[in-house]
Amino acid sequence: MIIRWKKHQEYYIVRMYQDLIGDWVVSQSWGNNAENTSACNQTVSTSYQDARLIVREIRKQLKSQGFRHVARQETQLGFEFDH
User: According to a count of CB atoms within 10 Å of the terminal CB, is the N or C end of the chain lower?
Assistant: First the structure.
């Protein structure tokens, strides 16, 4: 899952995915296009439910700060590792 938010020149991107050992990762990237700054953070969770709670809290915080959701169509690629 990839979710994008924007406020003026600021952006915030959240990615939630399961890694190869089964942990859930919430990756956060943010920055300001006008100032050419950026940073990132990753949080590892052992359950899907906990990762979703993290994403919900981020969403509530961003909405309260005036960010708006930016809808984009994403294509999820599936890869077979059994070969």
Answer: C
